Amino acid sequence: MVKLVKWVLNKSGIIMYRGNPNISKVALTFDDGPHHENTIKILDILKQENIKATFFVSGKCAEDYPGIVRAAFAQGHLIANHSYEHEKKVSLIEGYKKTENIIKDITGRQSGFFRPPWGKVDLRQIGFALTKKIRIVLWSFDSADFELKKSEEVAGNISGAKINNGEIILLHDDYSHTVGALPEIISGLREKGFGFCTVEELCGSGQ
Ligand SMILES: [Zn+2]
């Protein structure tokens, strides 16, 4: 039943769990940054590997490190919205709006892609997203870097899993163990025949 609800929401474009199943690409998504050291290291790896990814930035961190957001944008990554901060000092919608303004100030472009903290979506957000034509983006594969604290465990979790076309992979750019796992994650997915793109590119005719 839950699967069916997810499919309907994904199909309707209101909430995106996964992207186009007809292309052998996946989207690496990084939440909670930018981080003053780890995001920079991740950008270096992605540049070296010629990969475009998606960064769901926290508005507060983006305010603190606008130069990192600018660098990520200049490198061709999608800068997306993860609300202002995880703590609920302001409502999620207020956090979304505030963070959109911060992203626009830094990159000159609004994101229109929103991942609420913890992936918790409520009806108010869905209504807001519908009226404003915002894409709520969750994920179809959790790297579990939140629980797994070692690079080899995070990399092993992905390399041991069945990965499908259009998979949206959840990672966090504020963890050093995620940085450590990234080269192996990338090479493992490439060995399985996958390419990489942003969530925006992946959504096209997502199912
Ligand atoms: Zn988060």
Topology readout:
Layout: H1 2-12, E1 15-16, E2 25-31, H2 38-48, E3 54-57, H3 59-64, H4 66-74, E4 78-81, H5 92-107, E5 113-114, H6 123-132, E6 135-137, E7 141-142, H7 151-159, E8 168-172, H8 176-191, E9 195-196, H9 199-203
Parallel strand pairs: 1-6, 2-3, 2-8, 2-9, 3-4, 5-6, 7-8
Description of the molecule:
With 207 residues, this protein is of the alpha/beta class. It has one domain: TIM Barrel (Alpha-Beta Barrel). The protein is built from 9 helices and 9 strands. It has helices at residues 2-12, 38-48, 59-64, 66-74, 92-107, 123-132, 151-159, 176-191, 199-203, and strands at residues 15-16, 25-31, 54-57, 78-81, 113-114, 135-137, 141-142, 168-172, 195-196. Strands 2, 3, 4, 7, 8 and 9 form a 6-stranded parallel beta sheet that branches. A 3-stranded parallel beta sheet has the order 1-6-5. Helix 6 (123-132) links the parallel strand 5 and strand 6 (135-137). Helix 2 packs parallel to helix 8 and helix 7 packs parallel to helix 8. The longest helix has 16 residues, at 92-107. The chain starts with a helix and ends with a helix. The mean pLDDT is 92. The site of zinc ion has 5 residues, from loops.
Bound molecules: zinc ion
Distance between the termini: 17 Å
Q: What is the CATH top level name?
A: Alpha Beta
**Number of helices in the DSSP assignment:** 9
Note the beta-strand portion. 5-15%
Which structural traits does this protein have?
binds zinc ion, 207 residues, TIM Barrel, single chain, 45% helix, three-stranded parallel sheet, alpha/beta
